[in-house]
UniProtKB/TrEMBL annotation:
Residues 28-80 form the SPRY-associated domain. SMART domains: PRY. This is SPRY-associated domain-containing protein. Coiled coil: none annotated. It comes from the Eukaryota.
Length: 87
């Protein structure tokens, strides 16, 4: 286990090395992407759970919360708890 310094409110973080795919998956969760925030070069699919960066601009309606300058999108769900990398 490696201990590192992290800027901001977090002073230290434990970085755990994942051993298997299952180590990663035990911390996985289903997230739904918020189409109201998606940049126009991002195409959402599979019930807003997958996205693809495309060259063709998507015709999303203008919204104040939409990202305009970077290809970004927010999730509808919030995340909380301990951040563990690996298992």
């Amino acid at each position: 286990m490696e201990l590192i310094k992290v800027p901001g409110k977090v002073k230290e973080a434990n970085i755990l090395e994942p051993m298997t795919r299952e180590d990663f998956l035990q911390y996985a969760c289903q997230l739904t992407l918020d189409p109201n925030t998606a940049h126009q070069c991002l195409c959402l699919s599979e019930g807003n759970r997958e996205l693809t960066c495309v060259e063709e601009i998507q015709s999303y309606p203008g919204r104040p919360e939409r990202f305009e300058y970077q290809a970004q999108v927010l999730c509808r769900e919030g995340l909380s708890g301990t951040l563990l990398l690996g298992g």
